[in-house]
Structures are given as structure tokens and as C-alpha cells.
Inverse folding.
């Protein structure tokens, strides 16, 4: 044990040496000096639009942020797994169910890897999916409205990290567990991990028309850590690849104990084969408890349903469906090139970058060239599946993307750089420093058969001196590179929000065309909607008071309400009657224990207020909607519990 610790400490010193020398080199701010025409390349004139959308995961913000490229301007933060007071997401009665789980209401999440839906291997801009790591969930965002419309919890999973990547026709969005756990969960000693814990890889089907998600099956794998994954495409469509680490199955001091094996594995899963098995009734329905939350665009309301079982499959039930490809040293990223032939395993502690060949893999399987097995799963020979390796490209490889022109780009965390290399010859073509310690990188369409390789951006873990200091906490920075030429050219730094792990990006046109401007008031099926001023009313049901309220420039209807009592639960159901693009109204009530609401044209949202004090209390519109926005206000008279003030409401006249 002592020796292990020593080795580990030595390794940390190596890392520290590299990190600090790199920072020293660049902290004078000059090593990022740029050619003079660079500004033009990122300049988007006022009123003009960016060429690309970029969707950056928010990491521990739980959300997804939307940027334009090449400008690096941030357009929106889409709330996904975290409550968002700016719009009322997760606070309004309609959206609270979106954050329901088997552990109850969870106000926060850790989002990592967004992926855009695909048709025939090309990104189609319909949906974007993103995973929640901590309380395993997968969310779907509709790119017509940029709203989170579905969240499904993933049972039997813990640290949902090798997620959420889609197959080439969005047949599945795939979610793999990082931590193995007892399945089903039970009370057992942690030291009995080895051989007893398991890792679930979940295949969540996506209905072709509606996009509705459903867990089709889970494969119960050995108790390794499943780190990242990518779909096969083209010739390898039908397969999915997952990197693993901790094939040692250690449960303590993993930084040492999970770095013992010379090689871990990439797990290759023939999901088509398992799908066929399941379609014929294969697998076992296992009791489970997980939430499926769906937002209905017509009622503007989410519902949460608890699901009670899930189909599980053991690899041994489907011979020939699962194989292990030995891959050096705790691989992190698992990336498949646009042709589907090459599978890159980014071994974090490996000197070389390993690339496997899909064709060779099939060959080795066919000829049964196995080096052994792990828990009954055949292990292929490293040499038999190796396409090639990039020799000593850098230190600490994490992720690889492709430009569609035969080149790959890999990030190196320790040596803090992006390295461009050639598929097939494995030669290094270029390297550019990142500032500092890059994690993921993104090329628009990078995870598809047709990357749109004009730009690449690196998402860095350490910011230090890149921006004006903002106290101890700095936003992470991203760096945009022009990759249209032979050499990568640094164009721009831009700040990000939360911790962007991965990002998905694509050309703007498809999304722009389909973007929705308003919600049709006629289609509003919210049970508490008031579609005209004539529908507005106030209804008491015991101690619940329901206010059917409308907004239009520049008043609330009603704007005076009396007869509310201390201890009541007051529901403001607010329908925005506007039918113009970009005219939301806000709603805020004094002393409210939640957030404001931002109600889009044609939409209905509900906020609950529980008045605790007698008085006349104002509410107002929070969004500057017209020249008379400051006039957009109203009062609620709150009387004592035992008062007999009658329930009355009005607009434009005094309450008699
Ligand atoms: S992981 S770099 Cu989710 Cu690589 Cu963040
Ligand atoms: Cu409505 Cu301000």
C-alpha cells in the first residue's frame, strides 16, 4: 500500500511540474498573441446573426447554455435539471413535476454531455439531449422552443456519466453508469464490491415522431466504471462503445487502486443484437422505481409518472453481443470517427493514444481470437484490434473530435493543448496550447458522420489570468480556433457558465427555420387559462383561492382583489394574452416564497403565494414590456382569518 501511495505521489509531481511550467509560459499573456486579422473572423456586425449555435453543458449549474459562433456571445441559459428563478422553471406549479425523482423533488443537477438528435448520421436540430450525473436522469430539450420537455430518471445507475449520446437515427439515447452499485440496491458491506456490484448501461428509445423517451433495456455489466461512450456509425451502426476504468474493481483510494491494470477495456456492445433479443421477449422485467416527467406544450403543464419496472439483460443471455477491447490506462473519452471505422480510447495515464479498428474487431470476433474473458465476456487481443497509435502526442488525453477531412483533434489536460493528428497515418500535424488545462473540445457536428469542421472550441478547466479577476471564483473559459487551414488558429476567448463539459454545436439554419415565436392562445388547453378578459375570475375552494388572471400591455386583469385571508393558499394562474414575438410579461408578489414567473405569449403559468400578514399587498410585472410597464401592477387585500371580507375582484373600477 505504501508503495502505491509513493507511485501516486510521484505521478502528482509530474503533473504539477507540467501544469506549472505551462502556466509560467503563458501567464505573461503574450503566448496567446494573435495575428491582426483575427478580430474580423469572429466579428459579427450588430444585427447580424452567428453562423453556428453552440450548446454548452452547464456542469454543476445543471443547465445548458446557448452561444453563437464565431462571436462567442451567450444567448440563453436553458433550465434543465436546476430550478431557474429567471423564468420560474422548477418554481411554477406547472414545471415543478419536471424535477421529480424517486428521491423526491431535486432542485439541482450536474449536467455533462449534450448531444443533438440525428437522422441518417447527420444532426437534424430537432432535439438536444443531456445527462444528469448525480441523480441519474436524461433530459430532452425541444429545439423549436428551447424548453426542456422531457426528463427520464435512470434506475440502477449512479453517476450517469457515459451519457447522453444518440445513435445515428436517434433510435436510442444511451446512458451508462459511472459507478457500479449493488443491483438491485441492498444493504451489503462495501468491501464485497468486487464481483457483486454491477454497472448498468441503459438504452432509452426515442419515438421517431414525438421523440418520447422510454427505457427499452438495461445491460447489466461487470462492476467497472463506465466513463464515456459513443455510437458506432456507418459501418459500425448498431454498435455502441464505452470506455471503462477501475477494471480492478477497487472501492477505495481509486486514484491509486484503479490505476493498477496496464489496460482497461472499451466495451463494444452490439445493441442491434440485444434489441432483437428483447423484441422477441428476451430479458427480465425487474422491479424498479423511476420518474418519467413530460411537459405538455398544449396544457403548458408537466406531469410526473413513477414507473415500476425496467427490462434488464445479462450479457451472457445474448452470446456475441458484448466484447472487451483492451485499452491502455484508464481511458476517458471514447470517440468514433465520422466513417465509423476508428474508435479512439483516450487513456488518461497512457503515453500513446490508442485507436481501434472496427473492421479488425469484427475479424477478431469472427475468428474467435480471444485473449481471455471477464465475467464470461470475451476479451479480444489488443494487437488484433489495434488500428494504430499516435506516439507520445501529449500528456493526459481526454477527448477527441473529428473535422470530416480525415483529421482528429485530441485534448490533453496535463500538457494543456489540443493536438491535431491524421487518421490512418497517426502522425501529429499541429498542436496549440489552451489556457488552461482543457477538458472537452467540440467541432460542430463532431459526433456525427458529417462534421461541419470550420471551427473547434476547447473548454478549459482553469481560467486564472484570462479575464479580469472576479474574486476567488472565475467562470471557465472556452477558446475558439479556426480549423479551416492546415494549422489551428486561436481566434477568441469567451467565458462560459458553470462547468461546460461537452458541448454540441451545429450550423444555425435548421434550428433558426423551425424556431417558434409564440404559443398559440387558441391551442392553450391549460385548465386554469383565461383566454379573454371575460374569463378572468377569482374562485375560492376552502382555503385555496384560484385567480384566473390575464396580462396584456400594460395591465393585469383583475388588478384589485379583496377577500383573501391569512393562511390561504393563493394560486395566481396567469395567461399572457399577447400574440407577438418577444413580449413576455412577468409576475412577482411581495413575500412570495418562490420565484417570479416569466410568461411567454399565449402561455399560462401558476405561482402560489401564502400570505402571512394582514394588509394590502402589491404585485407587479417584472419584465419591461411597454412604456407603461411601471404602471403594470395590482393589489391583493389580505384580511384576518376570521374576517368576513367578501371575495371580489375588479379592473378599472373600485371594489364596492
Ligand atoms: S467529462 S471533461 Cu463529463 Cu471529460 Cu468533463
Ligand atoms: Cu408587463 Cu411589464
Amino acid at each position: 500500500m505504501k508503495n502505491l501511495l509513493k507511485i501516486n505521489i510521484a505521478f502528482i509531481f509530474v503533473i504539477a511540474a507540467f501544469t506549472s511550467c505551462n502556466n509560467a509560459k503563458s501567464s505573461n499573456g503574450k503566448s496567446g498573441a494573435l495575428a491582426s486579422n483575427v478580430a474580423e473572423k469572429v466579428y459579427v456586425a450588430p444585427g447580424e446573426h452567428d453562423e453556428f449555435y453552440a450548446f454548452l453543458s452547464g456542469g454543476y449549474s445543471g443547465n445548458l447554455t446557448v452561444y453563437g459562433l464565431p462571436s462567442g456571445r451567450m444567448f440563453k441559459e436553458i433550465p434543465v435539471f436546476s430550478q431557474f428563478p429567471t423564468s420560474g422553471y422548477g418554481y411554477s406549479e406547472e414545471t415543478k413535476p419536471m424535477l421529480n425523482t424517486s428521491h423526491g423533488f431535486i432542485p439541482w443537477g450536474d449536467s455533462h454531455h449534450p448531444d443533438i438528435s440525428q437522422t441518417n448520421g447527420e444532426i437534424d436540430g430537432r432535439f438536444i439531449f443531456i445527462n444528469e450525473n448525480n441523480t441519474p436522469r436524461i433530459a430532452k430539450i425541444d429545439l423549436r422552443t428551447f424548453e426542456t420537455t422531457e426528463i427520464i430518471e435512470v434506475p440502477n445507475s449512479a453517476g450517469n456519466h457515459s451519457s447522453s449520446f444518440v445513435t445515428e437515427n436517434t433510435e436510442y439515447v444511451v446512458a451508462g453508469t459511472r459507478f457500479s452499485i449493488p443491483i438491485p440496491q441492498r444493504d451489503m458491506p462495501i468491501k464485497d464490491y468486487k464481483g457483486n456490484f454491477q454497472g448498468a448501461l441503459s438504452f432509452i428509445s426515442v419515438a421517431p415522431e414525438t421523440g418520447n423517451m422510454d427505457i427499452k433495456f438495461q445491460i447489466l455489466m461487470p462492476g467497472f466504471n463506465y466513463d464515456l461512450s459513443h455510437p458506432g456509425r456507418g459501418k459500425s451502426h448498431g454498435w455502441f462503445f464505452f470506455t471503462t476504468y477501475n477494471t480492478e474493481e477497487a472501492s477505495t483510494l481509486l486514484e491509486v487502486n484503479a490505476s493498477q491494470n496496464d489496460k482497461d477495456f472499451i466495451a463494444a456492445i452490439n445493441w442491434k443484437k440485444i434489441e432483437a433479443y428483447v423484441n422477441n421477449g428476451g430479458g427480465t422485467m425487474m422491479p424498479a422505481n423511476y420518474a418519467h416527467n413530460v411537459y405538455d406544450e398544449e396544457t403548458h403543464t408537466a406531469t410526473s409518472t413513477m414507473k415500476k419496472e425496467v427490462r434488464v439483460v445479462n450479457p451472457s443471455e445474448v452470446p456475441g453481443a458484448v466484447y472487451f477491447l483492451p485499452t491502455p490506462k484508464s481511458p476517458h473519452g471514447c470517440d468514433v470517427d465520422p466513417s465509423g471505422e476508428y474508435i479512439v480510447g483516450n487513456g488518461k495515464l497512457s503515453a500513446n493514444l490508442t485507436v481501434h479498428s472496427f473492421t479488425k474487431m469484427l475479424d477478431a470476433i469472427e475468428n474467435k481470437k480471444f485473449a481471455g474473458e471477464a465475467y464470461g465476456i470475451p476479451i479480444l487481443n489488443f494487437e488484433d484490434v489495434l488500428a494504430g497509435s499516435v506516439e507520445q502526442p501529449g500528456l493526459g488525453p481526454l477527448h477527441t473530435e473529428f473535422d470530416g477531412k480525415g483529421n482528429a483533434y485530441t485534448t490533453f489536460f496535463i500538457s494543456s493543448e489540443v493536438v491535431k493528428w491524421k487518421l490512418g497515418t497517426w502522425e501529429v500535424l499541429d498542436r496549440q496550447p489552451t489556457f488552461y488545462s482543457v477538458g472537452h473540445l467540440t467541432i460542430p457536428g463532431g459526433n456525427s458522420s458529417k462534421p461541419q469542421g470550420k471551427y473547434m472550441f476547447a473548454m478549459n478547466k482553469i481560467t486564472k489570468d484570462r479575464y479580469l479577476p472576479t474574486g476567488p471564483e472565475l467562470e471557465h473559459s472556452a477558446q475558439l480556433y479556426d480549423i479551416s487551414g492546415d494549422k489551428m488558429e486561436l481566434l477568441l476567448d469567451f467565458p462560459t457558465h458553470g462547468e461546460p463539459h461537452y458541448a454540441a454545436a451545429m450550423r444555425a439554419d435548421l434550428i433558426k427555420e423551425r424556431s417558434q415565436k409564440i404559443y398559440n392562445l387558441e391551442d392553450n388547453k391549460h385548465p386554469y387559462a383565461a383566454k379573454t378578459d371575460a374569463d378572468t375570475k377569482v374562485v375560492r375552494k376552502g382555503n385555496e383561492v384560484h385567480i384566473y388572471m390575464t396580462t396584456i400591455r400594460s395591465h393585469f386583469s383583475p388588478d384589485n382583489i379583496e377577500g383573501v385571508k391569512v393562511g390561504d393558499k393563493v394560486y395566481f394562474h396567469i395567461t399572457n394574452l399577447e400574440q407577438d414575438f418577444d413580449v413576455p410579461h412577468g409576475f412577482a408578489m411581495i413575500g412570495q416564497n418562490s420565484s417570479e414567473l416569466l410568461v411567454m405569449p399565449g402561455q399560462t403559468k401558476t405561482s402560489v403565494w401564502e400570505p402571512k400578514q394582514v394588509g394590502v399587498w402589491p404585485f407587479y410585472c417584472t419584465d419591461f414590456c411597454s412604456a407603461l410597464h411601471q404602471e403594470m401592477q395590482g393589489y391583493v387585500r389580505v384580511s384576518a382569518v376570521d374576517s368576513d371580507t367578501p371575495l371580489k375582484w375588479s379592473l378599472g373600477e373600485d371594489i364596492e
